[in-house]
Each structure stands twice: as C-alpha cells, then as structure tokens.
Amino acid sequence: MECRCTESCSEAAVATGGEATSSSASGELWGVHFMPNELTVDVLLPNGIVIPLYCCRNFTLQTIKANAWKQARGLPLFNRMQLASTYVFVIVGRDGQVEEVYDESRRLCDLRLLWPVLRLIEPDGNVEERSLSSQISQAIGRPLSDLDESRDPELIQARIQYFRLCQEVCSARGRDWNEHLLRTFCEPVVAGDDRVVIADGPPPPPLPSPLLLLCVWIQPGTVGTPSVSEGHPHKITMKVPTVAKPSDVIRETLLRWGRLSNSARRSSSSSVAGEIDQSSYVLKRAGRRLYFLRDVPLVNYEHVTKCLGRGQRLVSVVLVEKSDLPEQQPAPAPLVPSYVKRQSTASANDDLAGAVCMWNMHSRLRIKIVSAYCINVSSFDAVYVNAGVFFGPDALCVRRTSPIASYALRWNELLEFDLPISCIPLSAHVSFTLCTVRPRKPKDEQHCPLAWVNLRLIDHRHLLIQGRVSLYMWPFGKDFDGMFNQLGQSGPNPSRDVPCLQVDFGCQQRRVRFPTPIQRDLFLAFFQKRHRERQAKKFHAGGRSCRRSSNSSYYSSAIGEQQQQQRQLRQPFPVISEEDRKFIVEDLLNRDPLHEIIPAEKSLVWRCRHFCQTLPPSLPRLLDAVTWTCTEQVCELYSLLVDWPVVEPDVALELLDVKYPDTYVRQFAVRCLDMRLSDDQLAVYLIYLVQALKYEPFLQSDLGKFLLRRALLKRAIGQRFFWLLRVELEHSPSLRRFALLLEAYCRGCGAHYLKSLVRQVNATEKLATLNAAIKDKKDDGTKLLWERLRQADYAEALQNLDSPLDHTVNLGTLLVDQCHVIGSAKRPILLVWRSEPTTGEPDRCVEILFKTGDDIRQDMLTLQVLRIMDNIWKSEGNDFCLTPYDTLPMGKRVGMIEVVKRSKTILEIQTLEGRIGAFNVGSRFTRSCAGYCVATFVLGIGDRHPSNIMITDDGRIFHIDFGHFLGHYKKKLGITRERVPFVLTEDFLRIIAKGADNVKKSKEFEQFQRLCSEAYLILHRQSRLFVTLFTMMLCMGIPELQKLEDVNYLRKTLAVDKTDPEALKYFNERLNEAYEGGWTTKVDWFFHSVKHL
C-alpha cells in the first residue's frame, strides 16, 4: 500500500480554516490555536500499514479506532492483527514527548498533537498500571516516564517512601471512613462542644435574635412521597431556634412535609414522621457539596454564623438522603507500581558497612576541577571556576581556579579548602560558578558569571560525596548580581544543552559517613568530660595563684571568686546574670529574622543556651549563635533539640527558612507544625510551606511527608496542594522534587478524584488556548468566545466539573450568553455557570475570571497576606471588613480569580451614578477603608486607580490586581506616578466624614484615624511573622520579590526596630502625607478616567 506523509500542520490549517498562532508550541496543533474542524489523520496500524482517515476534530479515539478497523478489513495483513481492544494509541505530544493514551473517550482536539499522526501498539507490562500512569501524567502535565527511566538511587528511594506513606494514609482513611467524610464534606464548625475550631478566626458575633429563619428545599421524590408539581423542588420555610440542631430541623421538616404531601394522614402527623427514618436524611448547604454532618447547634456552623454576621436572616439548606453523599464507600488501596515491586533491600546498606565516622577525619576538603565543555564564549575570553562551601546563605570557604583560554577548558586543578572534613556541617553544599574574564588591565578586568550549580557534600544516606561527577549547570538570571547563587536549589540541570562542569571529589579507602545518633552521644560524653576537666584545671590554677598572693585584700577577694567557681563547677549549667537574662527576654526575643547578631551576642546566647531552652521561641536566635563548623557545638545543639519544648507555628515557619538548612532542625520544625498547626491554619500557610520545600536538602523530606499526609486526609488542602505543586513545575529548577510529590498525591487521592483533577487540567488547557486566540483578535473577542464555548468539546470540558477554586462547588451549566471578554490589556475571560439549579438556591450563578499573561502567584501571595492580616485583626477583636477573594495560579502566567458578587469598580460607579451619590454606604466603608489603607501601606501596593478599587453593595471597599508591591511603583518617563504612601482620596474622606465641611476636625475622621492606628500597631507587633513569610518566598521567582532589599521595604513600613509609640508616630506621619497629597492621586485618577472613557 502507498504510504503518505502528513503535510505541514500550518499548511493544513490554512487549507482547512485553522487559525495560526504566534506561539508555535501552543494550541491544539503545532502552529495553530485550534485544530481544523475536519482534517486527515494518519493511523499507523500494528501490521505496519498507514491508513489516512478523514476525521472531525470532535472524534473520540474510540470512533477513530473503529473507523480504522473498518477500513483495515479490506487491506492486506489484516489477519495478522488481534482484536482492536488489544491495542492502544501512541501519540507525539506538543512538547515532542511520546505518550500512550489509554482513555479512548478523549477527543482528537484534546490530545494536543505535534502532528496529526496516531499509532496503534500492543502495550507492554501491566495494562492497569500503565493506564493509571497515563492518567497521572495527564494530571501533572509531565510524563512519568521521566521518573521511570531515572537510575538515581535517591529519587528511587524517595519515590518508594512517598508511596509507602500513601498506602498508610489510605489504610487509615479506610479504617475510619466516617472521619474522612467529616474532613471532606462537612460544613466547618466554629463553636460548640463538638466544634472544629477555625484557627485565628473571629469569635462568633452576638446573635441579634434567638430565632433563625430557615428555608429547607426538598427535591421531588427525596422523602418518598409524590410531588405536588412534578419536576420542581419544594421548600418549607420555618423559624427555628439558633440552638436547634440539624436533627431537630430534619424532624420538623419531615413532619411538615408529611402534612403537606399526604392529606389523608393530616390527623396523625406524628405517625407520619414515625414511618420515615429521619436518620436516613441529612441537611446540605445549598449550592455546595457541604453537609451538616455534626449534630451541633446550627449557630455553630460557619455558614450560618457568616450569614447572621452579614445581617442575612434567611438561610437556605437542602434536605437530601444520606445515600446521595459522595464517596459512600472507601476507595480501594492504591495500585502498587512496578518500581516498588522491584525494590531490592539486599544492597541497601552495602555502602554503609564499614564507613568511617566523619568526625574522626583529620584531612581537609579537596576538590579537583577537571574540565568544562559546551560553553559559548569568545575566543578572547579566559574562563575560570569559583568554588565555595556554604551552609545556607553563609560562606564557609571560597576558592577559585586559575583562568585559562576558552578553547581548551581543562584545568585538572586541585582546590584545597581551609575546612577539615570533620568540620563540614551535615547540610553544607558546594556552589560552583563558571566565569569569564576578558584580559585587560587588572583594574579594568570585566568578570562575568555564566552558569552555576549547587551540590550537597553529604548525600541522602549521610555519606560524604566521592568520585568524579558531571554537573550540568543552570544559567544565571537576567538581573542576578553576584558571583555565587548559593540560595539556588541543589542538583544539576536535567537539560543537556547547557554548560557542563566535570569535578572530582576524590576517593577514600572507605566511605565517610556523618556520625549516627549513637556516635554523637559518645562524642557528646567526650566533649562534656573534656569541658569538666578544663574547668577543673582552671579552678585549681586559680587556687594556686591565690595562695601565692601576699596581699590580704586581694587574697580574700580571690577566695570568694574561687568559691564561686567551685559552685559553678558543681552546677550542671552555668549561672547567667540578670542583665544577660533581661537582654535575652526583652531584646533578643523581639528581633525579626533579618536582624544582624554580632559576635559578642552570639557568644552570650551560646553561653546561655540552657536558659534559652526554657524560652522555646528563642530557638532561631540560638541557631544564629551556633558555629556550625565546630563539632562540639553542633553535637550539643542536637542534644538540646531532643528535649526542646514544642514551639508555636510562627517560630516553626521561621526554622524552615533557607538560613537553617540543617536536617535535624528542619525535622524539629516539621514535628512542631504537625502538633500545633490545624488544618485551617495549614490552608493559610500552605503556599509558604510549598516554597519551603525548595530549601529541603534532599528529595525526600519530613516537610514533604507532612504536607502529603495532610493533603491526602483533607480534600480542601489537597486540591490547593495539587495546583501549587503543579504551577511550580513551570517555574522552579526543583522539578523532580515537586513531580515526586504530585505523583504520590495522584496515587493516593483515589481514582474518582483523580478523574476530577484530570478534567480540571483539561479545562484549563482549553481555556488557555482560547484566551491566546482571543488576544490575537483585533476586536473584543466575545464573538469568538461564544462560538467556541458552544462547540461540543468545550461544552463537555467546561460543564459539570468541580471548581478548581473550591472542590465543594460544582460548575454546572455554562451560561454562554453571560460570558464575555474583559476589555483590559490581558483580555481575561469572565465565565458564568449555573451551579446546581435544582436545589433552589437563590444565587445560583458562579462567576470566575480566567486570566493569562500575568503571574497570578503575586496576586495569590498578596491576597494570602491580606487574609492573614484579617485573621490577626479579628483575633484582637477588630473586624476591618476585608474581602480577600480567592485566586489560583494554574500554570505559567495562567490562573483563575474569584469574582466578588454584587460589586463595582470606583470608575464604574463614578461614570454611571456620579461622584457623591455612588458612595451612599454605611460604616463598613470606614472600617474597610482603614483596613486597606494600612494593608496597602505595609505591603507597598502600587498602581492604585479607580479601576482596581471596588465597592460591594453593602459598602465594603476592597482592592484588586496586585501587579506591583513592596514599593515597586509604576513609572512614566522615569517619574513615579504615585506620590503618596497609600490611596486616601477626597471622595473617600467625604464619605467617612459623612459630608462634613472640615473633614480633619470631624469625629468620624478621628475615629477613622484611631482605627488605622489600631490596625497598624497590631501588625507592627506581628512584624516577625510577616518578615518570616516574605523571606521564605524569596525563592518563588516573583520579579518584585527576589532580594533581601525587597523584604527590607516591609521591615521599614512595619517599623520593626521601633517601639510602639515610635511606630505609631511614623505611621501617623505617613497618614498625613496621604491626606495632604490626595490631590496627586486625584490628578492621576483623572487621567486614568479620561483614558478609559
């Protein structure tokens, strides 16, 4: 048979009406946004024959296989093939990766092919396992074959250990399935004896009335009685006490429903309820898959509490049967993959047998720089290598090779470091930088770093690295300033088209191992014995000098000193003075993490280490005082950590910073988090902990296990955990670390939920393709949006799926006519769904903004900090009515944003309703304005104009679009547009002062100032937490948060080195600047309004 090659996709697109794309690697086919409606697909059969099939873009693989088999019956060698069900399709994806596709319900346009070519093969190995691997690859966006083909023993061990953890969690989850349902589908409880406490949340507000107006919706057939109007839900509205429990509401509902539905039994209504087993029913929150599963007073449920707090008297719930609860039965145990079955424990400890203790080594560290290749430099440049040993950000020793000509990069130069092997810290790493220098006069030499790579000196088995290794290097960032990237992640670049450095760490006769706990105990006993002997010698030497003295007064004072030394010698811990005690309690504990500690203070803190153990929050300062190259101090620190009291979450978070890379310190921090951090607190700090994974020394870590366990136990945490890990695959060099956790989560979350995640990923990819096509259009793009959303593949992908923002919300029918493109620079898409319309929920629409082109991670970080501020203020009894809406980054410059309902921008209000009439709002405006003034000042949020400040219909003001923060204000022609610390316009002040002529002298303005001062002082006292959080995010890769100078802006606005009165004075001065400089904001807003008319 004649074989025909596939034509160029670009040519095929033009011929069949496909739309070309500016990015050749995006879209449903290479070179086009959308696959043509009809195209020719070449199918390579198992017998080697190619069949050209005329296909529609919406054809499923099942349809294509059936058509191919139908045509193949009349071709030669058909009898050589087995049944069609024996074979699976193989495709070449858009990124060039070969992928086996086991789900034949997928459409052709959703495969995102490089070329319209399909191949049928007979799969090898376990088909069930390969099918699951294909599904996981689709979910995480990376082929699992990259992990399967790796021979790295650390990766294999980490992969196995994470799967073992999944098995443990799934087994525990199956043993107590009711607890799993409570964690996953129960409406949160905020008060009561059986409550689930929301960490850092506000206390329940006082109830305006002891009665609650409850609307209970009943779907036809729910109670087993005929419906009055078939096909429509029914409702029963009743007044119930706020202390009523769900069981009381169900009982009353069944009684009333019995009277309404069966008039024959109207006289014996009590028997009607008796015939119906009320334990078979449960109350559900309207519009969400959240159920009132705990039999506690209704007022203790978070949803009811929030409704009452907003003044909403009517609360809607739905009566459903318990059989309608999702996931009735425990999920089966996860399928054991082949890499676990292949595990061999026979040789696991071969390298450890006979290993030499590192602390017994006396030689110095030596590293031989052999050669480098694949370097693109000028022939006039000389090349050299910088090598430095670091412990976190601190340099222990630095060496460099001699520069050599770039055409013969072979040094064979041995670098000897002034660092004994016995003094190498457990988590030390060596950083290599490849540099060029152009020969000129010595003072004019231009040094340029080309590439870098970091490597742990002690591996995951605690063995000192040995032998020759080839290190593929990472390029430096555009704005990087320095000769070392010591804070970069460890490990070589997986790409091979980069500079490579060959290094030889030498070989010992036996492997060298960091001391085990038993060996450290022996060393500690030796160090303590030596310390006592030194103290005794010092004491006896002092006694002899006293006897030789002839001066009686000197003799008596020396005797007193001798007696004091003798008492100290008998005491287990040294005595500290009251002055030192005061310094530690009043000064040291109040310092923020970036405060420098001088050598004298380090000596003092280490001398008072046992006293610091009685003050658990002092642990980070004690770690700052440790000399990590002193084995005696390190040994004693490990001993102290064993008995160190549990610290609070804010201190534990600080211990996970890059400053503290030691494995045992980080294990202690994770242990404290596991004991003290509730699930709701974990949801708040999850983005910071995911970033802290980059600072973990090895692929397998206690922090990774902690996050994986919590994610598998609680769905709300798990879904956010999945997306936060997935987005980091697009940004971080730590691809393997996040890929391992993603794979483990997908294996442990269950088959049903894994399918939900795959659907969310597919919907995101289709929306990203659509948004890219809209940006290429010159018109508003709404017509193209409607055209595509009405197609079968988009309707199937975007309807009846779980919301990525909230797993309890089902995105039902897509309301295409209400979807449109926003007319801003990035042209985001506003999507509107009707969520569960049969429940009778009054507000049934779900609105989500899909946006590409901006790094949504910065918005997410800012909003998460606002949420933490809101929790802190509420814990102090202050509600500043913030609106920290939800955002979710879902890829590189791709994400979803929650739309706050019933709200308008300032520009819309001023344009439609006029300047003053629009701001007819209540006291919520004053409180929310005060909260956002303080928050935007502290965070240095810029680009504030009337299009990104909004007001809800109940008067709450809130900010959106946080593209600039930490003082990175927008400039025009080199001039900073924003001249004030935060936005406080004349319109805002007039509303706050309720129209008073002299705003500054009004009582309302004084109250506004007092609210601002209270809010600022509360944040000032929590400055240590905010500095810690932002320091942890330096590795996130956000352009405006990359250096310590960016965090120093936060330290400045929080006045970390000032007392409360000094900080308050500083803020009041900024408040006056904002008030006096309001005219500059007015001018800026005027030109913005003219531009957007």
TrEMBL record:
Q: What SUPFAM superfamilies would the database entry show? A: ARM repeat (SSF48371), C2 domain (Calcium/lipid-binding domain, CaLB) (SSF49562), Protein kinase-like (PK-like) (SSF56112), Ubiquitin-like (SSF54236)
**Residue ranges occupied by any PIK helical domain in the UniProt entry:** 571-748
Q: What are the residue boundaries of the PI3K-RBD domain, all occurrences included? A: 209-320
Stretches assigned to the C2 PI3K-type domain: 361-515
| InterPro entries documented for this protein | ARM-type_fold (IPR016024), C2_domain_sf (IPR035892), Kinase-like_dom_sf (IPR011009), PI3/4_kinase (IPR015433), PI3/4_kinase_cat_dom (IPR000403), PI3/4_kinase_cat_sf (IPR036940), PI3/4_kinase_CS (IPR018936), PI3K-type_C2_dom (IPR002420)
Q: Which SMART domains does this one have? A: PI3K_C2, PI3K_p85B, PI3Ka, PI3Kc
Q: Name one Pfam family in it.
A: PI3K_C2
Q: Where is the PI3K/PI4K catalytic domain?
A: 815-1079
Cite the entry's keywords alphabetically. ATP-binding, Kinase, Nucleotide-binding, Transferase
Named from the GO MF annotations, one term is: ATP binding
**GO CC, any one term:** cytoplasm
> Per the database record, which ranges form the PI3K-ABD domain?
35-124
Q: Which GO terms describe its biological process?
A: cell migration; phosphatidylinositol 3-kinase/protein kinase B signal transduction; phosphatidylinositol-mediated signaling
The keyword Lipid metabolism belongs to this UniProt entry's keyword annotation: no
Q: Which family does it belong to?
A: Belongs to the PI3/PI4-kinase family.
State what protein this is by name.
Phosphoinositide 3-kinase family, accessory domain protein
